[in-house]
Amino acid sequence: MQGISIVDIISSLIEVVLLSSLIYSLYRLIIQTRAVQLLRGALYLGLFYVIAYFLRLQTFLWIMNLLAPSLVIALAIIFQPEIRKMFSRVGQGELFRFSKKRMQLDLTPVVAVAYRLAKKKRGALIVLSNVNGQMTVAETGVILDAEISEELLLSIFMFDTVLHDGAVIIENGRLLAAGCVLPLSDRRDLEKGFGTRHRAALGISEISDAVVIVISEEKGKVHLAYQGEIYFSLSQPNLKVRLRDIFQGERYRIPLIESSV
Q1: What domain range includes position 64?
Q2: Which of 123, 190, 230, 239 could join 194 in a cystine, given CB atoms 3.0 to 4.6 angstroms apart?
Q3: What is the pLDDT confidence band of residue 57, given thresholds at 50, 70 and 90?
Q4: Is 255 a domain residue?
């Protein structure tokens, strides 16, 4: 019997590392969507199939083999938003990204404007680009490429200008565009209180790593959308904590205050 060479050992180690990285990366993508339910259901069906195979339940096996193609198609249709979200993140390079470069951004004027608008009950959407840019979305509005200031943001949202109904995009520390149209979330498990503004915030957060500040026009509350989730009615200190946690990776102990829309 020939001995195992150093090359074989190194090749095996590389293969184990690559497979482990792939499995872990796929796991990270799956747990961020409802696709984990799809995976759990597939595992249950696989378990039932194995049991039926060893117990020789021929009728059950025949039904499973007959319905298998239809089940795959049905699940693909039902979980189409989650599958699309996974592939979008793969396309953004998140599959093998274990750490990401944090965007440097002075959040002070942005947060200040959010609560000034909330006090006046002026609805607004402020999109903060993270690692991946939002030029495609920015092109749906008016490109500004201006310095961020409270006055500029207030002039966009405080009055009924042509840019008021759209979202502003902040990228690389500058106000990239205003009056932008965001993709709407097509999730059906949302509360009836979710309006177009909330769905737009969720929509862009589902297909990108952007962070969206939402100011509710009806109740004058400030919400935050990130990775397909929305955090309701955040106080000003808690919004700062959440934003710093996302962009700087810092962990603070101030609790988040969440409530209904």
Answers
A1: 6-91
A2: 190
A3: confident
A4: no
